[in-house]
């Protein structure tokens, strides 16, 4: 089973990353001329298996494939983007395994239970005559 999904197009990016609530998506943005970073593969694999009870997915995508990632085209270092509920919540430039471990572990924690609904206001007391 592959633990990293490669994003092929904008539609997949939208469906897999931007429209998946409650899951931390870790996205490695790489350049087509050098491919995904092999140095970080073991870190991701360990996190994938150590945190398999958490809502967590790993992706890789070439910056040249998506117009929404054009700001990363030509970068020499891999970029790691962290998304939750369709919003980018963190970014790391370069291979920094301890920082990747910490951020993934912190951000992939299970979502807290929803807040209890507020109690209905008490009915006004009846006036005594």
Query: What pattern of helices and strands is seen along the backbone?
Result: EHEHEEEH
Helix and strand content put the structural class at: alpha/beta
Shape: globular
Q: Summarize the biggest pleated sheet.
A: 5 strands, mixed
Query: What's the CATH topology label?
Result: Glutaredoxin
Mean pLDDT: 80
What is the highest CATH level, the class? Alpha Beta
How many domains, as an integer?
A: 1
Task: Say which CATH homologous superfamily is assigned.
Answer: Glutaredoxin
Strand ordering within the main sheet: 1-3-2-4-5
What integer value in Å does the Rg equal? 20 Å
- Strand percentage: 15-25%
Q: What low-confidence regions span 5 or more consecutive residues with pLDDT below 50?
A: 111-121
End-to-end Cα distance: 76 Å
Q: What share of residues is helical? A: 10-25%
């Amino acid at each position: 089973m592959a633990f990293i999904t490669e994003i092929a197009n904008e539609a997949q990016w939208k469906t897999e990353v931007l429209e998946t609530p409650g899951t931390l998506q870790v996205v490695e943005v790489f350049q087509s001329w050098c491919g995904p970073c092999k140095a970080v593969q073991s870190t991701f694999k360990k996190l994938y298996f150590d945190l398999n009870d958490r809502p967590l997915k790993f992706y890789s995508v070439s910056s040249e494939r998506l117009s929404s990632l054009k700001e990363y085209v030509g970068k020499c270092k891999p970029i790691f983007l962290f998304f939750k509920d369709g919003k980018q919540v963190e970014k790391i430039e370069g291979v920094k395994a301890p920082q990747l471990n910490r951020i993934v572990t912190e951000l992939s924690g299970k979502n807290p239970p929803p807040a209890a609904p507020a109690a209905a206001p008490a009915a006004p007391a009846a006036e005594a005559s």
